[in-house]
Amino acid sequence: MTPYILGRSPSAQREAVQRIQRPFLELAFLTAQVALPMGRHGYSSTSTLDTTLPSREAGRTIPVRIVTPKKMAQSDVLVLFMHGGGLYLGSGVGEALLYRFFAARLNATVVSVDYRMVPEHRFPAAIDDCEDAARALLAKPEYANHRLVLLGMSAGGYLSIQTALVLAHAGIRVTAHGAIAPMVGPFAAFESIASNDWLSLFPSRSIQWSWSHFLRDLPPHMWDWRVSALLASNERLGTTSPGCVAYHTFDTLRDEGAAYAERLAAVGRLHAARELPYPHGSGIAMGRVLEAMAEMLESRLAKQPPTMPPLAEESRGESEG
Fold this sequence. Notes:
By secondary structure, the chain is of the alpha/beta class. Helices cover 39% and strands 18% of the residues. The chain contains 10 helices and 8 strands.
């Protein structure tokens, strides 16, 4: 079932996908949180606080959930987490299994962002919210010297990738960005889209619908690195933070995840990449997927000391506009 057949207006389409797909996803995450040991551990070992961060838009704030370990002294690692859902589903509180796991595993403060979604909000609203949240957190004295990690799965992986580029363009240092089974751009030519469509968590037409609303009023000839990292020049991509990429063999997004990892490797910004033999979402194998990303991030954090020199000495590729 796709949004198309349940209404033509954006509001009708949004209502349709919420009725059909959102309950399924929420049930899947709830079941995993209860059934999987890593889910139960995340709940018992972390606490949460719901609050807001300032936006660039006057009078508007960004809802976030802050997750902290209960018993261990917090490290200097700050994770900005972006949820999945194809840019049109999900919320900043819905993927508790994921963000509680990383808070416990990395002994980190994790901040989950409730960014704006389609069809109500088009490009670059979601990216702006993630950038604004990162800036607001780093402006707080308690986080000023933290090592910032950007992280997300699926659409959250896309936002992690794009936020890393935007922050690099602004000269803001990020220790790493992680992308699990990421969407990478509005491209339909990858072979994995057709070969793995039968296993897709989201119907391919619903993802096309999402991209069409996200990029409405922005024709393809105007797309650049701000829309997709795959459109970035080598110089631009070479300024981003080291990336950790996990892509899934039986996923419609496999080829774009692999292409992004290859681009990072070509410019010397790939920390690690793994292909995992699962479909998108991974079901009961979610624990293995999260473990794989945690190991990559731990490896990156081990190479990045807590205190870092100023970014000014590094090339930022400002000449590209």
